[in-house]
Write a structure and sequence with these properties.
Residues 109-133 have a biased composition (Acidic residues). 39% of the residues lie in helices and 19% in strands. It has six helices and eleven strands. The longest helix has 33 residues, at 95-127. The protein is elongated and about 50 Å long.
């Protein structure tokens, strides 16, 4: 992990999280607060299967295994270690490092939400690929899938479906 020099700052602020730079034939990635890590470590963090695994991997990168083994967040003994007798008090983790992990996690969660939205859009477009009316460049909606695109008008039982954002009637196999 390397500290950013003044020349990596732009207008008094650091680059965004995920900014890549070439550093002595190695690619490093900005993880926040001017700290850069090797791209392989950054990719390991991003490919985590859950937010808790992500935080575990990020804390290993920010603090290192040795520090994590002999430290706690607060610097106090856990109830379990209090029962063991007189052992030295653990050192607290650096608050700026904890803030950094929190900032990285927020960025990770935002990217996860965006990737889920993209996957949903891809699934919808794949599902409706066969229902596209080439002449009118619109989607042909059948009765079975009309509910995916809008809400049924419950006041009038005329089996018309309306788009959720407009007053457009979606009816059976009619074009939108």
């Amino acid at each position: 992990m390397t500290q950013a020099s003044d020349e990596t700052r732009q207008n008094g602020a650091y680059e965004s999280i995920g900014y890549k730079r070439k550093d002595n034939n190695n690619i490093t990635v900005h993880i926040g607060k001017g700290l850069f890590i090797p791209e392989t470590n950054f990719n390991i963090m991003l490919n985590s299967s859950s937010p808790s695994v992500f935080v575990r991997n990020a804390s290993r990168v920010v603090f290192g295994e040795d520090v994590l083994l002999c430290s706690t967040v607060t610097g106090k003994h856990s109830n379990r270690s209090k029962k063991k007798g007189a052992i030295p008090a653990p050192t607290p983790l650096n608050p700026s490092g904890l803030d950094l992990i929190h900032a990285i996690e927020e960025n990770f969660n935002a990217e996860e939400e965006n990737s889920i939205d993209e996957e949903d859009r891809d699934n919808v477009s794949e599902k409706d690929e066969d229902n596209i009316d080439e002449d009118h460049q619109s989607i042909v909606v059948d009765e079975e899938h009309a509910n995916d695109f809008g809400e049924k008008d419950e006041e009038n039982s005329d089996d018309k479906y309306y788009s959720s954002d407009t007053e457009t009637v979606l009816n059976g196999t009619n074009n939108i």
